[in-house]
């Protein structure tokens, strides 16, 4: 996360790019607007696999990852989400994912706030990462979402260098999404697409409202 | 789906990640059951959520809210102001499977054309439809995608739009997305997130929109 909270430029950040340079030397596929259904997911060798990072202290990190999950599953891409730290496996997103035939798998032991004995949580995070690293290396998923992965990194449970090298070595054309606050500069530098969700207003803080079904869980 | 370490080996082939020491099962601190339930409309506190900023994730996060709400069988409606009906995005396909309609209000015409009057008429037609939906109490969660552009370009009267949102049923969750949310809209909203662009593959690497990620 950027520490310098400077005023963001008002110019369009998506201004004209340099020429696309896909990693395999092929020309990047340019989607054209045609009749409904004309978009096709190109084969992996023609895809730009992205490392996407959603960080910041606002609402929307996991939520945006869920939106990606919906999009990708609509394109019949093999999509999966692994949730570090989290424990619930029957929240709204899990129910929907089961209906869509997508896996959202919690790997954690629940919220760590106010708990002191976290040895089990650490073991679970390490085991979960070993599994996810295996999935990344084998290219099982077109879109693999690693939810709240930044937290075990921040707490020193997982090696950041190892995670970055595993994600960088992913097979051509696979997308990896990492969410969670406290993303370090190293992780941000390694990612292709980084969005910082900034909380301008949040009802937990301003109105003392709790998490609501259907919105936050 | 379990946090039991014995079932961490999730792959079909049954090959567990090796070289892991045997560990005792993690203690589960509290019951694992999801205690969150959708409250009755009379007890629910509807939120007005605004996703703004120049980064990726505004509409995408709105889709995430849709995913969550759909899991609890809430009625969800999504109306897209800028997007044209000509294109079928991944989310349209997936939402249809879930029985949710994502409705582009473009009516097959293009937005942002040279003809400002046509854009304004289209926006007003779309807003009339949305207003009907708000007043009909049809949806628990209503997503108004890219609505802020209609306000920025003055296609819609901001006072009227904000008044309609303010006077909505108190249980109705509304998500508004789009860049440059006005101060009045931010003031009215309960939850505002600015998606701040830090890195973007189009800006840094010239990689355009891809199916499954951006569309």
**What is the residue-mean pLDDT of chain A, rounded to a whole number?**
84
Helix content of chain A: 25-40%
Report on the biggest sheet of chain A. Answer: 6 strands, parallel
H-E order of chain B: EHEHEHEHHEHEH
Strand order of the largest sheet of chain B: 3-2-4-5-1-6
Structural class of chain B: alpha/beta
Mean pLDDT of chain B: 82
Strand content of chain B: 5-15%
- The number of distinct helices of chain A, counting runs of at least 4 residues, comes to 7
Characterization of this structure:
The complex is a heterodimer of chains A (217) and B (215). Chain A has 217 residues and is of the alpha/beta class. Chain A has seven helices and six strands. The longest helix of chain B is centred in the middle third of the chain and has 20 residues, at 116-135. Chain B has seven helices and six strands; from the N terminus they run βαβαβαβααβαβα. Chain B has a six-stranded parallel sheet. Chain B is α/β, with parallel strands linked by helices and 215 residues long. At the A-B interface, β1, α1, α2, β3 and α3 of A face β1, α1, α2, β6 and α7 of B. β6 (193-201) of chain A pairs antiparallel with β6 of chain B.
